[in-house]
Amino acid sequence: DHLLARIERLDGDLNSLITVTSDQARTAADAADAARSRGETGPLTGLPLAIKDLFCTEGVRTTAGSRMLGDFVAPYDATVVAKLKASGTVSLGKANMDEFAMGSSNENSHFGAVKNPWDQNAVPGGSSGGSAAAVAAGLVPAAMGTDTGGSIRQPAAFCGITGLKPTYGRVSRYGIIAYASSLDQAGPMARTAEDCALLLNAIAGHDPRDSTSVSRGVPNYTEELAAPLAGLKIGLPREYFGDGLDPAVEAATRDAIKVFESLGASVREVSLPHTHYAIPAYYVIAPAEASSNLSRYDGVRFGHRCEAPSDLIDLYKRSRAEGFGEEVKRRILIGTHTLSEGFFDAYYTKAQQVRRLIRQDFLDAFEEVDVLMGPTSPTPAFDLGANKDPVSMYLQDIYTIAVNLAGIPGISVPAGFVSGRPVGLQILGTHFAEARLLNVAHQFQ
Ligand code: GLN
């Protein structure tokens, strides 16, 4: 009730939630109280949270931030949602986001931009901007996000919270509205690494309904949090400290890294030589997958349908023209182009080859060091409306996108402020190194 009142009071300005599910929340809270009185209490029993509006939630509107799904009520729960419910959490609502998770500022939402709680002239980052803002504003202690090219880590950095993108396949994608299926991964956003560890315990694991989820044991992610960092080998990718990095963000990042040295870690420079190709490769692969995934919104089976179509083609055309926003249309155009005959080998096949090289860069680096560190984003949160050019917006993800192409895990932790706006330190590990990342992040906090 306290948080619902807080949402009522503050979220009119912030716009972090698209749908507030007070009734369902009260029912879930009662169930949590009942479980507690029976002594059936787990670490998440009764924990309030928000869920990015990309996760299907049974009986609740699930919009993906799009007019296309503006009235869509999901008939079933995503696996992550089902697992969170089974852990006794209480969802207070569905978090605002860039339409179909395409964006880095949360300005692409059909439901309006989200404001950064630290400075309401600033964006919260994207695409999980609503999740990050809701946690930062104290509307919920935790939220679920998804990260296809940085969408958990970058808004976590901009809002001064902690966000973890797990290894691709660690968390089921079943019931998460697909953007780019080979890159999408769900993860927790919360104040601390410890909170993220508790949430990852609840959501990780194999799911027979997602053939890309990995059948590999799930460790207890809280167990290693206290392990000392003496002897930890940290690599600083040369390419993450170059042109385009705001000097004040660099200074905050280097200050954070000194803390690890004082905890007994050693630091050396490493190179990820194909970094420069990550954004071009991503902007071939992600739109290609998106154009295929979004072909299902045809105005027939679900989603927005235009008025009085004259025939089937008119139905498709107008339903899609009306239902999708500008950035989504741009991605569909890019994707259908790069997948079309005559361009496929030049763009898509080439991008997949580059992707392999990018992955190999990381694997080579992890032969030498345990974790990589650098800034999460080259700048602190920018002003709402300030970044109008799509390519400069895409460049926001320069340090986060390669991680998704490689499938490795990454976490962003708060690392101070630049001009009153939070900045994040990104810590990367090899595949399935989540426990190590959480441990390293926890020791910093
Ligand atoms: N900003 C990137 C994009 O627009 C990444 C988004 C994401 O991770 N969902 O595609």
From TrEMBL:
Tell me which residues this entry annotates as catalytic: K52 (charge relay system), S127 (charge relay system), S151 (acyl-ester intermediate)
Q: What Gene Ontology cellular-component terms does the record carry? A: glutamyl-tRNA(Gln) amidotransferase complex
Protein EC: 6.3.5.7
InterPro entries from the entry? Amidase, Amidase_CS, Amidase_dom, AS_sf, GatA
| Enzyme superclass (EC) | ligase
The keyword Cell division is annotated on this UniProt entry: no
Q: Name one Pfam family in it.
A: Amidase
Query: Which UniProt key words apply to this protein?
Result: ATP-binding, Ligase, Nucleotide-binding, Protein biosynthesis, Transferase
Q: Which reaction does it catalyse?
A: L-glutamyl-tRNA(Gln) + L-glutamine + ATP + H2O = L-glutaminyl-tRNA(Gln) + L-glutamate + ADP + phosphate + H(+)
Example GO molecular function term?
Answer: glutaminyl-tRNA synthase (glutamine-hydrolyzing) activity
Occurrences of domain Amidase (ranges):
1-438
Can you cite a GO biological process for this protein? translation
Which family does the similarity line name? Answer: Belongs to the amidase family. GatA subfamily.
The subunit field of the Swiss-Prot or TrEMBL record says: Heterotrimer of A, B and C subunits.
Q: What does this protein do?
A: Allows the formation of correctly charged Gln-tRNA(Gln) through the transamidation of misacylated Glu-tRNA(Gln) in organisms which lack glutaminyl-tRNA synthetase. The reaction takes place in the presence of glutamine and ATP through an activated gamma-phospho-Glu-tRNA(Gln).
Name the chain's protein: Glutamyl-tRNA(Gln) amidotransferase subunit A
The taxonomic lineage of its organism, from the top, reads: Bacteria, Pseudomonadati, Pseudomonadota, Gammaproteobacteria, Oceanospirillales
Gene giving rise to this polypeptide = gatA
